């Protein structure tokens, strides 16, 4: 569906670079100039992908029942066991399986019922990241706890445009560990426009989901407690769709990659070998207006992107998706399909001068690097409402990442229950990667980002840093939409 906006009418944590010098900066924090050691964390050296395991794709979740426009699903958070490295079995979490979860595919206008069961030994929630639903148990924030052995049923009507979203747990203080152990899955929204567009759409054939995550294996084990770091838990091993050292095969045609950064904290700097160009066709919340050609793409934790890459000229060759210079995914190209032309115009997003000149009504400051991760100088209090906003109204929020005495680092900022538009970055027009609908943006140190925010539903929603360790220690606030 077309979204109507009415107004009264990059952190592997910016990987592998240290800037040790002090710099003086004026911030909104206290209104004074501050000195801070401005630097970015040096991540663990990523192990190169050896490409020894076939990449697999999560199954599409079959409905329990489907009648007309009504559809019913069942999703269970459960314990499992997997072998990732060295032939060693490790305990895991998964949705309807041993690790990660199936793709839940919904359509705009559908009436959806989902039965959510917790078979873990600890409480959890089911959060629908990017889905525009009521801010109650449906959204699955930290208030919507499901205890072990319990089932909760949610019902909602899908009312948003086609997009690649995801779902994951959101229990206060436990989100990072549960995602690290395997709780994450993709959620696709289709609509009439997406079904009519000429784009690669054959799941697992020319339309591929890629869930990017990192882990550090301790004697072959996924042991979050052994590697956890409040600053950011970063791994040395990349897995895609739960596969370590993956490789995939694709035909010599244009292929679509739906990429999720499902890591706890890592930012990915994506490109292909020889800087092969690709087209960005969608961001977090759906299609961009026109395909944007690029050679690099930065994805912070929680962000998604859909890209199309043309493999026509690479028959019999291997093309690699890279993170910086580190191989992530080798793609072996075969001559099995006929290349087709696809649409390059998709959406009608209007960011007019009215939005650009509206006054800021809500300001969020983010700070913290080694401890004391704060939003507006506070940690999360589930009894406190930080903001209020009227349903359907558009307001301008300004998000600022300030430098304090600890220093500074990039923070991915996420708002539940909405898809917003980026109005400006430090007063300038955003890059192409931020010109579509977004629900998560990675704000760099000393950067100010203005966004136009509209909530289509009522309720209480979280806004927070999507480095999961920061979220867990309280870098989170609440807005009541009335």
TrEMBL record:
One of its GO terms (molecular function) is oxidoreductase activity. It comes from the Bacteria. The keyword Endoplasmic reticulum does not apply. Residues 77-193, 231-311, 360-481 form the Plastocyanin-like domain. Keywords: Metal-binding, Oxidoreductase. Pfam families: Cu-oxidase (PF00394), Cu-oxidase_2 (PF07731), Cu-oxidase_3 (PF07732). Belongs to the multicopper oxidase family. This is Copper oxidase. It comes from Caryophanon tenue.
